[in-house]
Amino acid sequence: MTKLVFTQAAPLGTSSRALLKTTVDTNASSILLRSGRSATRVSRSLRLSTRAASAVSFPEFLPAAVEEITEPVARDLAMRLERVPVTSAIGAVAGNTVKVGVCAAPPKARAGLGGSLPEASDKPQVLCLHGFDSSCLEFRRLFPLLEEAGFEPWAVDLLGWGFTEMPVEVDYSPAAKRQLLYDFWKQYVGEPVVLMGGSIGGALAMDFASEHPDAVSKLVLVDPQAFASLPPPPDAPPPLPAPLGFAGAAVLKSLPLRFLATYMVFNDKSEANWDAIRIGRLHCLQDQWGQALVKYMQCGGPILLQKAVMEKMASIPQETLVLWGEQDDILEKSNLESVTSSIVNTEVVFIDSCGHQPHVEQPRAVVEALKSWIG
Q1: Mind spelling out the 3-state secondary structure of 145-212?
Q2: What are the residue boundaries of the structural domains of the chain, listed by start?
Q3: What is the layout of strands, in order, in the sheet containing 319-325?
Q4: Cα dihedral across residues 159, 164, 166, 170: positive or negative
Q5: pLDDT recorded at residue 70
Q6: Which residues participate in catalysis according to the annotation?
Q7: Which among 81, 228, 357, 367 could bridge 338 via Cys, Cβ 3.0 to 4.6 Å?
Q8: What class is the 2-18+73-374 domain?
């Protein structure tokens, strides 16, 4: 039985969106000044403020462009990022170890990421999976709100995306992404989690929950990609020549395409600003990003994931909450219908005034829905 619940998104108040708007308005005010001398003074003042703000300690593995990000919650989460070693058998990696990009809430972080499996917590553990070619910075606005609400959140970068190490020797198939995530869970979390995935992250979350029910107590899907509007996948992925793959990666990394994608994601188009583009594109500036993306495409990653989701959805045992942005212009609602008709125990919450990423555009509504559902 599917239960439909409608919710009106709560205002952000003085949260990250308000802070971001203040930043944008301040920059705009310098443009409106008529006096050349005044404009020069304001411009110089803003540059000095930016330098002062950037005099913070970001992890060394992040691209230098992280300094250009201005949204406070994004900078805060970036400073909390770590790369932790995970022993895995996903490929011929030196020492069978891959360093996974992760942000975890204390005290879990201090115990688990310190090298020993932490004791079970009495707080709900929420493990967040980002979407296609994204990073855990996607949860920059949700993460602190989850902490405030009494959850212990984890945000993990999936293999081949985000800031997880990208060794040349491994494959980047959906199965490899799932295996490395499970190895991370075994070595650092060690107790069932509420698994949350957005878009393609939702597809990977369904695949993971079906294969590893011991690791997932409940499932949260945020505008999940269930491939309902696509034709059935072919028996074998078509070959992708490497030059064509790298050309596609260059286009995906380009500023025009990133702007278009960012614009389409939001219902409130003012959110599609340069800072959102910088945040969404930051992981693309790593040296191995292109080859990891091409390997994912060459192995038929999208088709393999589509097959996995279509075959496994009906066998997902966990209670499932589906959050859907009412103004999602990326996915058709047939994806929502496919999930609710396949997974036995689902509840749906529609987030009003929201596009494809409720956890970015309406994070407070997402937290309220989680609190109500988990109880």
Answers
A1: HHHHCCCEEEEECCCCCCCCCCCCCECCCHHHHHHHHHHHHHHHHCCCEEEEEECHHHHHHHHHHHHC
A2: 2-18+73-374
A3: 2-7, 346-351, 319-325, 216-222, 193-198, 125-129, 152-156, 97-104, 82-87
A4: negative
A5: 97
A6: 199, 328, 356
A7: 228
A8: alpha beta
User: In the structure encoding, which two tokens stand for residue 306, read together?
Assistant: 């589509």
Residue numbers of the chain with a pLDDT score lower than 50: 6, 8-54, 110
The reported pLDDT for the residue numbered 169 is 83
Give pLDDT, residue 229: 74
Q: What are phi and psi of 50, to 5 degrees?
A: -65, -45
Q: Using one digit for the tens of pLDDT, what is the confidence trace for 277-321?
A: 999 999 999 999 999 999 999 989 999 999 999 999 999 999 999
Please give the backbone phi and psi of residue 355, each rounded to the nearest 5 degrees, phi first. -95, -135
The per-residue b/e assignment along 164-197, b for 16 or more CB within 10 angstroms, e otherwise, is bbbbeebbbbbbbbbbbbbbbbbbbbeebbbbbb
pLDDT on residue 49: 39
pLDDT for 24-67, tens place per residue? 333 332 222 223 333 333 333 333 334 344 456 899 999 999 99
pTM here is: 0.83
CA gap 184, 187 in Å, rounded: 5
For position 228, what pLDDT does the model report?
A: 79
Q: What is the distance between the alpha carbons of residues 87 and 81, in angstroms, rounded to a whole number?
A: 19
**Tokens linked to 375:** 């109880």
Residue with tokens 């702007």: 259
First-to-final CA distance of the chain: 19
